[in-house]
Amino acid sequence: MKINHFNSFLSLCAITAMLLLQSCDPTYSIRIENQSSSKITVTATTTNKFQAYGHKIIELGADKVRFEIPSGEYLECGMAIAGLENDLPFTSLIVQTLNKRIVADTPNKVISLFEKESDGNLKTPYSLVIK
């Protein structure tokens, strides 16, 4: 069997080009942080991007969950590749603290709760901080 070195070279170049052209978008964690003086209770409608570990998550039915975050702790809720909009783990969110109730009933309102830089862009990693 005769080996065609030119075809082998072209195949190697094609594989190298495919590897170089793949996306290298950064991945950021999405979390809810409780910086208040008491526990918070979160009730949320989730998306398929919701992933939480380390806290007791109570399933309330189709895509609805409830969980508590003690004071000074946080819950990792998922990961976002490059931007939060496409990887948002919640479509709606209700956060109950000792003194207030925060309601975000649309994905845009949920996004508006996350910390922002001084220029208005979202901070990364994505943190929704309750004070």
Short description:
By secondary structure, the protein is of the alpha+beta class. 18% of the residues lie in helices and 37% in strands. The radius of gyration is 21 Å and the shape is elongated.
Secondary-structure element sequence?
Answer: HEEEEEEEHE
Major sheet description: 5 strands, antiparallel
In percent terms, what proportion of residues is strand? 35-45%
Any idea how many domains?
1
Mean pLDDT: 86
- Number of separate strands: 8
Backbone structural class: alpha+beta
For the terminal residues, how far apart are their CA atoms?
Answer: 72 Å
Strand arrangement, major sheet: 3-4-2-6-7
The helix content, as a percent range, equals 10-25%
* SS summary, helix count: 2
pLDDT < 50 stretches: none
Shape type? elongated
For the CA atoms, what is the radius of gyration? Answer: 21 Å
What does the model show?
This protein is of the alpha+beta class. The chain has one domain. 18% of the residues lie in helices and 37% in strands. It is built from 2 helices and 8 strands; from the N terminus they run H-E-E-E-E-E-E-E-H-E. The strands form 2 sheets. Strands 3-4-2-6-7 form a 5-stranded antiparallel beta sheet. It has a 3-stranded mixed beta sheet with strand order 5-1-8, with no helix packed on it. The radius of gyration is 21 Å and the shape is elongated. The model has no long low-confidence stretch (mean pLDDT 86). This is Lipoprotein.
